[in-house]
Amino acid sequence: MFNLSDRSLSRLEGVNDDLVKVVKYAIEVTTVDFGVICGMRTIEEQEELFKSGASQTMKSKHLEGNAVDLMAYINGRGTWELNVYDEVAEAMRLSAIEHDIPIRWGACWNVRDLRDWDDSMENAMNHYIDTRRSEGRRPFIDAPHFELMDGD
After folding, report:
1. What is the pLDDT of residues 20-50, one digit of tens each?
2. Helix intervals (H) in 79-150
3. CA-to-CA distance for 52 and 103, rounded, in angstroms?
4. 26 CB burial (10 A radius; 0-12, 13-18, 19+)
């Protein structure tokens, strides 16, 4: 079983309580350790990420406390390997179901609410990639990103 570090907990300050609840439960049920690398963002931070291409929007849910970025850890070291984020996303999906809170994952933007996806998170990401390519568009994979959705 894994726990959030004090640093991760401090990065949840200002984040919507429902999203915090999802993250805190997800760390208890995950098969892969993770930490919070970003919660709230200032407009200046968002501008820099947008300019660099690391973000696709200036209307980020991080600005309002409705998004988090999580980093997966293997043997105590951060990793960007996509397959590891499938496991983190599965823990977030299970937590979203447990708490009945709508969550979207940045590796499958076309799945509006992870609670509604009944296949693997790997297949959710592949579905998104296939959909974008069929539209002649490049997929934007942001696997560390999870955001709270309105309940509509």
Report:
1. 999 999 999 999 999 999 999 999 999 998 9
2. 82-99, 121-134
3. 26
4. buried
- In one-letter notation, the amino acid at residue 52 is S
CATH label of the domain that carries residue 136? 3.30.1380.10
Q: Per the domain annotation, does 1 fall within a domain?
A: no
Tokens 């509509």 belong to 152
| CB 68, CB 142: distance < 8 Å | no
Structural domain of residue 139, as residue ranges? 6-148
**What is the rounded distance in angstroms from the CA atom of residue 148 to the CA atom of residue 22?**
10
Query: What does the block give as tokens for 24?
Result: 């805190």
The position carrying tokens 């990401």 is: 125
Q: Whole-model pTM?
A: 0.94
Rounded Cα–Cα distance for residues 128 and 131 (Å): 5
- Whether 92 contacts 146, CB under 8 Å: yes
